[in-house]
Amino acid sequence: MYWTLELAYHLEDAPWPATRDELIDYAIRSGAPIEVIQNLQMMEDEGEVYESIEDIWPDYPRKDDFLFNEDEY
């Protein structure tokens, strides 16, 4: 299982909090690439509820991780 920013982007608008099955259903309905669906299917399903993408991909970069000044845009 691997995540990239491009793949994780497809889950940003997911209905958080969500279970693995709900995320798979959302990915299918929203037309996410097959890699997103495969990554979700590879996760262990213990009935866990995920609060955000950070629960799935702990290294998900946040706005603070980028060094740019928003005031310039």
Describe the overall structure.
This protein is mainly α and 73 residues long. It starts with a helix and ends in a 17-residue tail after the last helix. The model has no long low-confidence stretch (mean pLDDT 86). The protein has helices at 5-9, 20-29, 34-42, 53-56, and strands spanning 18-19, 49-50. The protein has a two-stranded antiparallel sheet with strand order 1-2. Helix 2 (20-29) runs antiparallel to helix 3. The chain has one domain. Helix content is 38%, strand content 5%. It contains four helices and two strands; from the N terminus they run H-E-H-H-E-H.
Mind sketching the topology for me?
Layout (H helix, E strand, L loop, with lengths): L4 H5 L8 E2 H10 L4 H9 L6 E2 L2 H4 L17
Antiparallel strand pairs: 1-2
Helix pairs in contact: 2-3
In short, what is this structure?
The chain is mostly helical and 73 residues long. The protein has helices at 5-9, 20-29, 34-42, 53-56, and strands at residues 18-19, 49-50. The radius of gyration is 13 Å and the shape is globular.
